[in-house]
Design brief:
By secondary structure, the protein is an all-alpha fold. The chain has 16 helices and no strands.
Length: 316
């Protein structure tokens, strides 16, 4: 055996791991909690928990989310030359280092999206669901694709925030749809504060990239209005999320076993962080980035706590 063979093998493994890093699969795993939140809400509304439905739905979410970073890095290739990747933003930086992987990244994205749609078709056939379930998955993937892809390019037209915020509807919506078999008015109302939290998420991942996005031609709200504007929007969206949960009981559309005061209290975590940031006004990039990382941790903590609360309703 040649001494070069182990070296080549190690290089191949490192390249494979780097290509996987390009897709940021950790975000796909994190967004599982959005899906499970919608699924658990469906169970509270009387849907039967079917493990096979849950697993196939999770697979759709994983494939769809994993595809996002491959096609975003592909279409943001020029813009990403102006940003420095952070743990939460700026792309992966992998294609900047390996531009020869661009077409491979595009192929990977198309393959993952195709697999997600195929799984949704299989799901629909197995469980005799309406074709709107497949349509729901297709729309979700197209919305993510055209965040950066031409000809729509939402993030280059000042509309990317709406596309990103829609995740707060689409991901829990898929979980609810997968178990309930439909979407109802109750879920549409419940999705409002989740979309507001996702808007908070969007502001937090745009703030670190303000200078780079501006130089790269992106028209994000932060690139246009600045970091202070973004931190103001974080507080407003967090406050509206809390208020939304507080007024939901007055609709008389939800089971009395859901204590919306608890859900509102949970949203005080990201809201409290936002208020603190508004007070100290962190406009310098490195400090602002640190607080934005805290924001994402606060949002995911809130989503996980909502999951835990729903589980407590179901089992206790």
């Amino acid at each position: 055996m040649s001494y070069n063979e182990p070296v080549k093998s190690n290089d191949n493994i490192r390249s494979l791991l780097k290509f996987i890093k390009l897709g940021k699969p950790q975000f796909a795993i994190g967004l599982f909690f959005y899906f499970s939140m919608g699924a658990l809400l469906a169970v509270i509304f009387g849907a039967e928990f079917v493990l096979s439905k849950f697993i196939l739905g999770c697979l759709i979410i994983f494939l769809s989310t994993w595809a996002v970073h491959y096609h975003n890095d592909y279409f943001d290739y020029k813009a990403d030359h102006h940003v420095t990747p952070t743990p939460i933003s700026g792309g992966s930086g992998v294609l900047i280092e390996h531009p020869e992987w661009r077409n491979l990244a595009k192929l990977m994205a198309i393959s993952l999206i195709s697999l997600a749609i195929i799984v949704s078709i299989i799901f629909t056939i197995i469980f005799s669901y309406p074709l709107t379930f497949v349509l729901f998955v297709i729309i979700a993937n197209l919305l993510a694709l055209f965040y950066a892809a031409p000809p729509i390019q939402l993030s280059y037209r000042g509309l990317g925030e709406f596309g990103n915020s829609a995740i707060g509807f689409l991901f829990p919506g898929l979980g609810f749809f997968a178990l309930m078999g439909t979407l109802n008015i109750q879920f549409l109302i419940f999705a409002v504060p989740i979309m507001l939290l996702q808007f908070l998420f969007t502001m937090s991942v745009e703030i670190p990239d303000m200078e780079g996005d501006k130089a790269g031609g992106k028209k994000t709200w932060i690139a246009i209005k600045g970091r202070r504007f973004g931190f103001k929007l974080i507080v407003i969206s967090g406050l509206l999320a809390t208020i939304s949960f507080l007024i939901m009981p007055f609709t008389n559309l939800f089971p009395s076993i859901i204590n919306f005061n608890i859900l509102a209290a949970i949203t005080l975590i990201p809201l409290g962080l936002g208020i603190f940031e508004l007070i100290i006004k962190p406009t310098e990039k490195s400090i602002a980035t640190k607080f934005c990382i805290y924001n994402l941790a606060g949002i995911f903590t809130a989503i996980i706590l909502i999951n835990c609360y729903f589980l407590s309703i179901i089992y206790f």
